[in-house]
């Protein structure tokens, strides 16, 4: 079917991870390589989906990316898309606490404070006092390399109020999961690293001490930057015409044989090559699907990796996009996170997209995204559109007092949208990598590996392609 110099490589999954892998393969292997992108659905993009509203496109999955991880910015530049990038307004986000919107506290690490005073408007006075008292409490039992459930950690040191009102809403905004489903080392790695430092120096390990150290480092860095007269770079970027621009550019640059509506059912080794059902024979495979599907697809060629991936849960969620013809009364904030103990509301967060992104504000009116569903409770993902839109409108009015009716809506369900980075996740992923390192011409990419964010996914796609190229050069 092909000569050794012109391999046939299948990339399974047409999300950002798979498309970045395909594009890297094309750039490294040149025009001769036969690159297939096999996508189960009738469109590329996976969790990146841009929807056309009457006044312009809006993202209904990921809407932004963190600029701290620089690989994606470089990729965007190479793709000629830098002019598409936009920065946020800088308006603050809020928490919804006891029926009020209050500014998100500035001095926390993923919602974890060092002092009660920094979160006084959000947690009870007792909890604030308990946070302060932690500095002299019995130290944590911690050995270098340990991991812990974030909810268990924060509850044991600061109490349940801090978990429900601060940490779960913050982490939930990224992982669609409460702090009780997430591991510290994978989701707040800087804090785990400070715990390690304290333990290896023989110093007492306390949560407030470690958070204080991280906050001090952050503030020192901000002061040093201010002294240079430079402005801090924006933390987030988004695409003026939505993520669609990135997906299209990646697909174009990959110049691959893209097959939509092609669900790969199995991958097996066959006569020194691979047999993909129902596609046929190829020389190498990049699996770039969510973890449970990757588990099945790797089940034959790297069974131990398959078993490890099969143990990873996925969180489902729904985004309801709402366009309004007025923004009168919509708070001057970028959005609001609802605590897991917020009574009488179904939504877990609202993004006031037209406040957060000036390029959306320019269209006039307002745009709001409501989010529902968590790893622990995905029941609303199955609710019908009418119910979800009803909750979105009612909850928005309850939380903000903004009572306008949307003139256009879109309901996007994300079944299995995000992998849950539970306790021990990084060790599990290291074990998966070890297995795949010994599995020639098979690679894995996707949100389960290096982080759920788009930049991490793109990096994982590039790395998977480089592994395949290395393996091919040795065979
Ligand atoms: C609601 C939501 C909001 C988010 N917001 C942000 C954000 O603002 N910023 C950010 O950085 N990240 C965000 N993320 C995370 C980010 O969007 C995802 O982690 C990332 O897009 C995943 O990309 P991927 O290519 O790894 O996987 P996916 O996008 O899931 O792509 C995998 C593809 O594989 C296909 N597939 C599955 N099985 C098969 C099969 N058997 N055969 C063929 N194809 C198959 C699927 O159809 C899919 O297209 C968000 C995620 C969600 C759900």
Automatic annotation (TrEMBL):
InterPro entries the UniProt entry points to: Amino_oxidase, FAD/NAD-bd_sf, Protoporphyrinogen_oxidase, Zeta_carotene_desat/Oxidored
Enzyme Commission number: 1.3.3.15
Coiled coil stretches, renumbered: none
GO BP field: heme biosynthetic process
UniProt cross-references to Gene3D superfamilies, sorted A to Z: FAD/NAD(P)-binding domain (3.50.50.60), protoporphyrinogen ix oxidase, domain 3 (1.10.3110.10), Protoporphyrinogen oxidase, mitochondrial, domain 2 (3.90.660.20)
Keywords recorded for this protein, A-Z: Cytoplasm, FAD, Flavoprotein, Heme biosynthesis, Oxidoreductase
This protein's GO CC annotations: cytoplasm
Subcellular location: Cytoplasm
Keyword Transmembrane helix included in the entry's annotation: no
Molecular-function GO term, any one: oxygen-dependent protoporphyrinogen oxidase activity
Entry similarity comment: Belongs to the protoporphyrinogen/coproporphyrinogen oxidase family. Coproporphyrinogen III oxidase subfamily.
UniProt name for this protein: Coproporphyrinogen III oxidase
């Amino acid at each position: 079917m092909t000569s050794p110099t012109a391999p046939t490589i299948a990339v399974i999954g047409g999300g950002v991870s798979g498309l970045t892998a395909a594009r890297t393969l094309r750039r490294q292997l040149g025009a001769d390589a036969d690159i297939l992108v096999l996508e189960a659905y009738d469109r590329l993009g996976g969790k990146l989906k841009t929807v056309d509203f009457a006044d312009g496109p809006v993202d209904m999955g990921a809407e932004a990316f963190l600029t701290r991880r620089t690989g994606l910015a470089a990729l965007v530049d190479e793709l000629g898309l830098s002019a598409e990038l936009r920065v946020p307004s800088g308006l603050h986000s809020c928490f919804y606490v006891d029926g009020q919107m209050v500014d998100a506290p500035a001095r926390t690490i993923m919602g974890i404070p060092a002092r009660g005073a920094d979160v006084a408007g959000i947690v009870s006075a007792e909890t604030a006092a308990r946070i302060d008292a932690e500095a002299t409490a019995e130290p944590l039992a911690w050995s270098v390399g340990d991991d812990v459930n974030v909810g268990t950690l924060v509850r044991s040191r600061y109490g349940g109020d801090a978990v429900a009102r601060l940490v779960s809403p913050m982490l939930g905004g990224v992982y669609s999961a409460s702090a009780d489903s997430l591991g510290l080392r994978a989701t707040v790695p800087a804090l785990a690293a400070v715990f390690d430092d304290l333990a290896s120096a023989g110093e007492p390990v306390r949560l407030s001490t470690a958070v204080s150290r991280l906050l001090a480092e952050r503030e020192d860095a901000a002061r040093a930057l201010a002294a240079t007269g430079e402005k801090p770079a924006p933390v987030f970027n988004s695409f003026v015409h939505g993520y669609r621009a990135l997906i299209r550019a990646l697909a174009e640059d990959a110049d691959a044989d893209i097959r939509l509506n092609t669900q790969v059912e199995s991958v097996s080794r066959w006569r020194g090559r691979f047999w993909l059902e129902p596609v046929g024979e190829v020389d190498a495979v990049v699996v770039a699907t969510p973890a449970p599907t990757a588990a099945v697809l790797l089940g034959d060629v790297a069974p131990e990796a398959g078993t490890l991936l099969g143990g990873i849960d996925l969180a489902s969620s729904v985004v309801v996009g709402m366009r309004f013809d007025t923004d009168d009364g919509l708070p001057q904030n970028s959005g609001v996170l609802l605590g897991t103990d917020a009574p009488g509301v179904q939504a877990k967060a609202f993004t006031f997209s037209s406040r957060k992104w000036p390029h959306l504000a320019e269209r006039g009116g307002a745009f709001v995204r409501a989010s529902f569903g968590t790893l622990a409770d995905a029941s609303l993902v199955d609710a019908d559109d009418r119910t979800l839109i009803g909750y979105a409108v009612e909850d928005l009015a309850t939380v903000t007092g903004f009572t306008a009716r949307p003139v256009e809506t879109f309901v996007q369900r994300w079944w299995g949208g995000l992998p849950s980075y539970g306790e021990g996740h990084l060790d599990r992923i290291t074990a998966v990598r070890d297995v795949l390192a010994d599995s020639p011409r098979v690679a894995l990419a996707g949100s389960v590996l290096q982080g759920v964010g788009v930049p991490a996914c793109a990096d994982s796609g590039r790395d998977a392609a480089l592994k395949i190229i290395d393996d091919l050069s040795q065979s």
